[in-house]
Amino acid sequence: MPSTPPEEVDVPFQPNRGWVKRFAVACRGIKIAVRGEASFFVHLFVTAMAVLAGVIFGISRREWCLIILCISIVLCAELLNTSLERLARAISREENPDIRDALDIASGAVLVVSIAAAIVGLLVFGIRAAHMLT
Length: 134
Fold this sequence. Notes:
Elements: H1 19-36, H2 38-57, H3 61-91, H4 97-133
């Protein structure tokens, strides 16, 4: 059985961490996105408006589940998009069509889930808002 040279031994990228450290690192990532990305801040503002509308309109538990699920998916997509943008900048600052396409695809994913979340918001809040106006 051939032995593996020392330089080829698999070394973990980061040492094994406890749960508290894992949560701290994840929270740091969210903080970086909130502070550094205008689009993430916009999503947080819309999140606050959706939660406020849910409280004002007194939506049902099932509707809360839908709204929270939509919020989570949009924020997750935005976090993944932001991480890809940072990674792309770390790899190369030169024009690269493949990196550009990957970033455009990730942005498209954020757009798709944002539109879907807006439609769910209209379905949940639209009827209630129309009743309030009449």
